[in-house]
Amino acid sequence: METRELTVVAGSFVGFQLLFSVASPRLSSSITPGYRRLPPAKLTEWNSRLVSTVHALIVGFFCLYILWFDDAVNANPVWGDPNLVKLNVAITCGYLIYDLVLLACNWKTMGDSFFVCHHLAALYAYGYVLTRGVLPYFANFRLISELSTPFVNQRWFFEALNYPRSHRMVVSNGVAMAVVFFLVRIAVMPSYWASVFATFGTPEFERLGPGAQVAWITSCIALDVLNTIWMYKIARGCYKVLTGRGGAKVKAAEEKKSSVNNHAD
Predict the structure, then answer these.
(1) Helix or strand run (H / E) with residue 162
(2) What is the pTM of this model?
(3) CB 196 within 8 A of CB 220
């Protein structure tokens, strides 16, 4: 890993930590008085989700820029010039390390072994990009999914502030969440996998070696299975809200769900 990428990782870690501990409390309390009335555990998660939203917007739009304008990466998705992609991945790695530290420091209220495994696996996979510069197009393409994160976090903010599920803003955000989630995680699957299959049997693919090949394909399959399951649940919930179905049973389920750790959707 080059000095530039290490600097970006470290700088991102420090920046997200400052956003969590300094900027988020000041900004949130000035935007909504309900922030100060939250219990300590929810204040911590609120600040965490605001950081999550900022990270998602940065890497999500940077990802789109690379997909649209980085000709070197698009021309050779396996071994193209990874400079811009490395920057984007380094920002994400800094965020993942910050989030792991946050989870460790607040394990009783936010700890979740699933997310620890997720973050460690992501750091391992992105390590290939930062150290070997491989699969820049595919690593960057996966980050487009972050564009759905702000809507997921906004759903949690509304729940934390006790907005009714029938509120216009809650419904609008729910519909937007379902649409964006579908666009950036489901609709892109055919294009993504067409690009993957196009590399099979090429010298560039063989150059990766079996380790990178297996890690790449298996992680992609697992992610897309999870995304499909989540999309089904989001679509079902959105349908119930729009049609007014579900009644007390759905309301009780939502109340139970809001009490569960929603740290990193």
Answers:
(1) none
(2) 0.85
(3) yes
